[in-house]
Design brief:
Length: 114
Amino acid sequence: MAAWSAIEGGSAPDLVLASTSLHRKALLERLGVPFRCRPPRVDEGALKAVADEPIALAERLARAKAASVAALEPSAVVIGGDQLVECEGQVFGKPGSTDRALKQLSMLAGVRTA
């Protein structure tokens, strides 16, 4: 926290995580800096409908999430993130159900990932 305050001349800006992900929240908590979470308002389906390379798609989603929160928090430092899995040309998002999760896992079984 001392380094954060020194960068800002003694007062730390609000840090906002544009996410509802418990995993992302836990990762940021490990840094020991104060922050709060705010859910982004992004139509992920519309962004995913535009064909894109997986890395570019994840970047576009992360930027859109951060931008949606930054518009509501203009003086805050906003962090947005996204992740996805690509296997044999198919991009997997959140499964949304146990059945879909099992289907995704079975498709990934035995496949080497990076």
